[in-house]
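User: Sorry, what's this?
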Amino acid sequence: MGLGSVITAAFILPWGRARYSPNTLTRLAAYLLALVILLMAFVRQTQLLLVVAAFAGVAWTSTANGLWLAGQRAMPAWARGRMNATVIMSSQGAMALGGVIYGTTAQTFGVRTVLVAVAVFIPVMLLTFKLLSSPLSIDFTQRLSFESGSVTPSSQNFIHVLQPRDGPVLITIDFQVDEPRGREIDSFISVLRLIHLRNGAYSWQLFADPARPNQFHVEIMMPSWSQYLLHCERITKAEKEVIDRALSLHLGKNPPETRMYIRVSKTFRDA
């Protein structure tokens, strides 16, 4: 396996990336892995088994490399450390669980039977996803961009010097939407909520005035002042464009009214 992994990293992957998409390479490697597992169920000669093991290294390195790179591309820089730790912990746990399942089933049904079953299951699963036109793919990670959106923190004239731990911070936005475009706001609700939650907010809510159907009120809650500043840094250019499109629905010459509130505490009052 070690020899196959080295050859893959040095020659096969650079050649394959120049000709195929990441998802295609990963699928081909998965088919190769199924073939390797099937051969392991029947090969008994030591020399031939070593050749099969080399191909196992090719398949393992190709699939692991493709999935790992896709994961790195999909992680924003500020969360990469924590997300990598989660991925490593989950993968190690999955390997341990897989070892227990394989050992138990091999003892019950026999090694050859289990290997053949796994070898058949892999292509069946891949073909099923293809026939069902499943959107499962890692190609989208090549188009992701985490370019900063250059969001400027609130420049209100504060009468207190805010400390990093002051909070929670409540941000409110009041805006009015023209009646014919009132339903357009529905298409932004879930997207805007996810944008703010994944960048540090722990609450995002949209309210409508029952007396004025086209009047809306947004409340965004941040854990602290420092988290609010980090939230502004984390918003990407693509996310800011979505936020700006939603705010463009506002009716009126003046921009939507934005206010910020800090939870009152003894420390804050005495500042």
User: Anything to note?
Assistant: Strands lie at 169-176, 203-208, 215-222, 257-262.
